[in-house]
Amino acid sequence: MLILRPELPTPLVGQIVEGLRGLIGTQRLKADSKLPSIRAFAAAHGVSVFTVVEAYDRLVAQGLLVSRANAGFFVKRRSEEGAAGAPGTPRADPRFDARWYLQQIFENRNLQLKPGCGWLPHDWLFEDGMRRSLRHLSAGGTDIGGYGLPFGHMALRMAVAESLSERQIVVDAAQVLLTQGSSQALDLVARRLLKPGEAVLVDDPGYPNLMFMLRFLGVQLIGVPRTPTGYDLPALEALLAVHRPKAFFTQPRLQSPTCSTASLPQLVRLLELARAHDFMLVENDIYADMDASMRPSLASLGQLREVVYVSSFSKTISPNIRVGYVVARPELLEDLAQLKMVSGLTSSDITERLAFGTVTDGRWRKHLKSLRDRLGRAQAGVARRLDALGFELFHEASAGMYLWARHPDIVDSAELSTRAAAEGIMLGPGQLFLVNPRPTGWLRFNVAFSEDERLWSFLGRSIEQQQCRELSQQVEG
Q: How would you classify the pairing of strands 392-393 and 199-204?
């Protein structure tokens, strides 16, 4: 039923949990199925009973198993409401739980290979600059006993305004609100702009965390198809003729998961449509520092009349530095600051000071150039490897973190991801990024984590095995 591999760095408890999760997710272990007893499982797999106890307990806590007195452990039957997700959400394919998988991306950092994750390896980040900033904070007698400011650390807000002026976004520090990463910024904007039942546009495929957050608000998600050059504008205009969206949450530049970038004519047309149909554009530009091109943005073209601009330092300094920001019209920004105070008081003055010291470090710009060059080389190298295996690339990017690709012999990337996890590999199944989840062959590859030969060995074996199965079926037919 399950193969454990003690030689892998993933602990045996984690292998058991992930293996049984996969069997349950693919319904090879069906609801109400009885699992082997703790002692029987331990004996069959050559592990201690304590290892099995911990694994079973974790699965019970996660809602996948239920313990029945004097009977044992059984696969828990999920209610229809729980399986369907949020109200109004199309029911996802039962073999893949997108919310669970997204949680695992953050919880299972012990997986040896992470080509499906959304952050950079430690040695690609500006760790030296962050350490210098930490030393400076420690030596400078910084007050660590109080709250931060409602709008955030003023010196960092001024630095943000100055950097935005280089991107032709004309603001002053008073129009910058610091947040706990871009996720809090997006949440604040959504809660300010949207009411339950209202329609909101999002990229499709797009950002899973954003979609989950919007669904919790009870709004109606309308997917705008992405193309290699940005947006399917005819499809967007057709959607606008039917729906009256209040906002469009989008990533024009180096979008996740496709890494596509909208052209200047597309951005101009998007602004025209926003004015004509009276909806706000929420521009999530968290990958701007990875782009060497000084290309326009919605905010630079619209100067915040129809645009709210969101970005973050977490991608390029460190994921642990939860410092993002939102830029908007003064009256809207004041409302966002009030929401920030209501939901979480102030953001962390210490992390904001740490970010300020890092981005004003004399080597910061050199680090960004080195990072862009490294990502460009990784993009080219991973694209070649995917092409050699027969993958189709959605868009061959020269910058950014991701490649969006599919293989003709991979019908369900979620199933492939489950098998990969059992071998210590975290993939990015396409179903996770779709507005209406369904089985798909698309996968998101983080190029910074996709240079290990073990990944390519796994993909090659998986494709070969699938081709053999298909050939066998043809012969039998």
A: unpaired
